[in-house]
């Protein structure tokens, strides 16, 4: 996440108040890579988005807790490690305040893949 191109993500996306995610990182005094260490990744297998299928992980904008659909995530990570990493970065953007629709989940993932993949 320390590559300059990947770091650009934080300036390209904003939270609901219009602050860039980079401003939110700066306010925390963190780099993108170091910030990942502040996120709590926990098993979300017993929660609806995981039970419903199709999700790898989920969170709410601004929350530091990311629920991981462990079985689906592990299966993806075993086959496509880069895509698994991209989904972690996707959720990390949400924890910094990025909402969704707009931008669509696919657009977020596409941009993360283009910058960090
Ligand atoms: Zn998302």
What is the total number of structural domains? Answer: 1
Strand order of the largest sheet: 1-3-2
Tally of helical runs: 8
How many β-strands, per DSSP? 3
List the topology elements.
Layout: H1 4-7, H2 9-12, H3 21-28, H4 32-35, E1 40-43, H5 48-51, E2 57-58, E3 65-68, H6 70-79, H7 81-95, H8 105-116
Bound molecules: zinc ion.
Architecture overview:
With 117 residues, this protein is mostly helical. It has one domain (4-116). It contains eight helices and three strands, in the order ααααβαββααα. It has helices spanning 4-7, 9-12, 21-28, 32-35, 48-51, 70-79, 81-95, 105-116; strands spanning 40-43, 57-58, 65-68. A hairpin with a 6-residue loop joins strand 2 and strand 3 (65-68). The longest helix is centred in the C-terminal third of the chain and has 15 residues, at 81-95. It starts with a helix and ends with a helix. Zinc ion binds at residues 90, 94, 100, 105, 108.
Q: Keywords for this structure?
A:
globular; 117 residues; binds zinc ion
Task: Give a summary of the structure in a few sentences.
The protein is mainly alpha-helical and 117 residues long. It is built from eight helices and three strands. It is globular.
